[in-house]
Design goal:
Layout lengths: L10 E5 L4 E6 L10 H16 L5 E5 L4 E3 L4 H4 L4 H11 L1 H7 L5 E5 L2 E3 L1 H7 L3 E5 L3 E3 L13 H9 L1 H10 L2 E3 H7 L4 E3 L4 H13 L3 H15 L3 H14 L4 H11 L10
Parallel strand pairs: 2-3, 3-5, 4-6, 5-7, 6-8, 7-10
Antiparallel strand pairs: 1-2, 8-9
Helix pairs in contact: 1-4, 6-7, 10-11
The structure holds acetoacetyl-coenzyme A (CAA).
The site of acetoacetyl-coenzyme A has 22 residues, from helix 2, strand 6 and helix 5.
Amino acid sequence: MNAENWEFKHLVVERDEEGIAVLRLNRPEARNALNLELIAELGRAADMLARDGSVRAVIVTGGEEVFAAGGDIKEMADKYAPDMLNAYGADLSGFEKIERIPKPVIAAVSGYALGGGCELALVCDMIVASETAVFGMPEITLGIIPGAGGTQRLPRLIGPHRAKEMIFTGSFFDARTCLEMGLVNRVVPVERLMEEARELALRCIRNGAVALACAKACVNEGMNTDLYTGLAYERKCFSLLFSTEDQKEGMRAFIEKRRPAFRGR
Ligand code: CAA
């Protein structure tokens, strides 16, 4: 099999020995605006991170002053509906690929996370924000609406009234307000951002990888279906986990009063 090519034009991906990969948006000249090329790279990186057995959790981050300024306004400005349906309709799946990585994915957000930048944070499983983080959906001020899941994921996360306030006004919200709204998991000083995201990732991945993948799938699938379909899905995953070595090890370790040594199988 060919070795994976981890080189990207607008992203930097670093993997460490503990199994944490950091995916950093790197288009500073455009405030990490998400053009089609960058969105396609996100999709390719997501596929590779999902496949790589040495990667157990992913941190998605940007720059200190800007996480991402949203869709690339200059690239979109002269487009018409068919262009958007064809090009962006297809390529926004880069976001969905991030959402479907079967491992914990944590957004570490410092500075502006606007429009598509905020939507990128929303496809992550958890959001750690720096005190300087600012979230907003300014699309309405451009004569459009969020187009990468904002009108769907945001109300599911913070409720329709708060989501509508963000989307209808296009206002920016500081990190503390976003914490109160339930948009972010925690707010930390900017110099602690990556450390905090890393600690959160480590606390997840000391648990079994198969159970983590099932837990993620159950929550994500369940959020998009009715309660009884979600419960049936959960029951299947719960039962199937009893065919893993990790379940045997986890329960045996509890009974023997020791820490489990999960192997992700
Ligand atoms: N698209 C394209 N270029 C962008 C951009 C964007 N979203 N955001 C910033 N840039 C460019 C600027 O045009 C500027 O380029 P030039 O040097 O060539 O003039 C450069 O990046 C620096 O930008 P600023 O001078 O504005 O930087 P700042 O630090 O003063 O402000 C900011 C930063 C608050 C993020 C501001 O740039 C801003 O408000 N950006 C736009 C935010 C926005 O409206 N996002 C929604 C986009 S639409 C969308 O996201 C649709 C979707 O759902 C997918």
